[in-house]
Design goal:
Layout: H1 11-32, E1 42-47, E2 58-63, H2 67-81
Length: 83
């Protein structure tokens, strides 16, 4: 992940986004082991923190079989970074 910021106090916000990426990796590790049919739809969840900058956009590519699952996960990520 690439992050752009001018002030040192923004470093904490960058680390929060990095932690979010780790959480996303754990959540989707089980999805990788799903059958091909369950993985047929690729979804992109995008969350960004405007206080850090446009370069800090976090993208988590995940494969889910239902729209409800996608919405639930997106809501969780938005709450975690305060979007």
């Amino acid at each position: 992940m690439r992050a752009c910021f001018q002030a040192p106090d923004r470093a904490e916000r960058v680390s929060e986004l990095a932690d979010l990426a780790a959480v996303g990796e754990l959540e989707w590790s089980a999805v990788r082991h799903a059958t091909r049919q369950e993985q047929r739809v690729a979804k992109l969840i995008e969350a960004s923190d405007p206080e850090v900058g446009h370069g800090s956009t976090l993208r988590i590519a995940c494969r889910v079989s239902g729209v409800k699952k996608e919405q639930d996960v997106a809501d969780v990520h938005r709450r975690k970074i305060g979007v």
